[in-house]
Amino acid sequence: MVKKISSPRGTADILPADVSVWQSIENQSRELFKCYNYKEIRTPYFEETGLFQRSLGQTSDVVNKQLLQLAGDKKEGYSLRPEGTASVVRSYIENGMDRKESLSKYFYLGAMFRGERPQKGRLRQFHQIGAEAIGLNAQSPFLDAEIIGLAVQLLNRFGLKDFKLKINTLGTLEDKEAFSRVLREKLDDKRVELCEECQNRFNRNIFRVLDCKNNICSQIVGQLDIGDEHLSEESRIYFEEVKGALNSASIEYFVEPKLVRGLDYYTHTVFEITGSSLGSQDALGAGGRYGGLVKQLGGPEADAIGFALGIERIILAKNQAQDKQNDPLLDAFIVTFDNCGQKMAFQIVSELRKNGLVADMSFKTASIKKQMSQANKLNARTVVIVGEDEIKNNCVVLKDMATAVQEKIDINNDNFDLLIQKFKERK
Ligand code: HAM
What we know:
By secondary structure, this protein is an alpha/beta fold. Helices cover 41% and strands 21% of the residues. The protein is elongated. 36% of the residues are buried. The model has no long low-confidence stretch (mean pLDDT 92). Residues 83-85, 114, 116, 121-123, 126, 128, 130, 132, 283-288, 306-310, 312-313 line the site of histidyl-adenosine monophosphate.
C-alpha cells in the first residue's frame, strides 16, 4: 500500500470552504489599518537566527525552545520567523527609515513559525495580524492608546465581543531590573516549591515564573502581592498618561500587575487581550512598547510600540457559521448532457467570466439530477441548461434556483450578448 503523506504536525490546510473567513478578516484589517494610516510591510519568512536571539532574548521560550532553524545553511544560521517585530525593526534600520520619516507606522499579515507542542489554538505554523509604530517621535501615551485601540477595534470589527484587555507597565530597563530583584526577594522562600523549570528560570529570567502554567507555580504567583515600588516616578507618570488616553477613547481595560509578556524586548506599557471561550491558549493578541530594541539592533535612538493578533485564535473565537453565509454565490452553473453540449457550455462560461460573472460548469456529462445537486452545493444562483433541443434551436434555458422559473434565451450565431445582458440584470 502507498504510504500517505500528512501535513506536518502543528500545521493546518485552510480549505476553500474556510478561505472566505480568512479573506474577510484580512480585508477588514487592511481597511482599518488604512484609517489609522498604517502601511503594509512584507519581510522575509526567514532571518538570521541572531536577529531573534538578540531581540526576543536568549532566555525566552520562543528562542530557547521554539526557533525552527533551517538545516543546510549552517554558516549564517537562518531560522523561520517566530514573530514579526524583530524583522520589522531589522528592516526599519536597514532601510534607514529614521532619516525618511519621523514615525513609521507598519502593519503585516502573515505566517509565523514556532516549534511548540501543538494543541488547540497552538500551532507550529500560525498567522498574525500585526502593527508596529517606530520612530524618533514614538514615545507618546497617545500612541500607546492608538495601538491598543487599534487592536481592540480590529477584534470588534471581526465580530468578537467576549474579550478582555489587560494592561501593565514594566517601566524603563532599570525599572525592569528592579522588578526582577523584587520578584526574586518575594519568591525566595517559595523557590524550592516552584516547578523545576521555574527554579531554573529563577536567576535567568524570573518574569517567566509569573506566567508559568504549572498549578503550584500559579498558586504561588496568585498569592504574590506586587506593588509598584520598582517603578520610577517617570514610569508611573507615563503609565497614568497611557491610562488617561485609553479612558479618553473609552477603551475598557484592566490593570494586571503580574502581566509581563514572554519576550524580552518590552519596556513600559505591555498588554494582552484574552478571549473567554478559548481555553488554555486564550490570548487573542498581545503587544507593548519596546523602547530599547532599535538601538540594541544597531539602529538609532528610536522608540517603538506594536501588537500582534493570532488569526487562528480569532477564528476559533468567532462564530464561524455567521461568516459562512457570506460565501460568494456562483452567478451561473452550466449543465450539459453530451460532448456537443460541453463545447457550448465552455463557450458560455468563458464569455460569462470575461464579463466579470462568476461561472462554472460540469466537466462530466452526468444525469440532470446529479448536475442540479452539484449546482445547489456550489450555491449557484442560476443554472444554464444546454441540452440537445437547445443546441438544435440555438438557445439555452436559464433556471432561477430560488424561484424555479425558467426562461429561454436565444443564442444566434454564437452571439452571447443577450445572455450576458440577462446575467448582468440579475446581479
Ligand atoms: P506573542 O504574544 O508571542 O507576541 O504572539 C501574539 C499572538 O500570536 C498571541 O496572542 C496568539 O494569538 C498568537 N500566537 C502566538 N503563538 C501562537 C501559536 N503557536 N499558535 C497560534 N497562535 C499563536 C508577539 O508575537 C509579538 N511580536 C507581539 C508584538 C508586536 N509586540 C510588539 N509588537
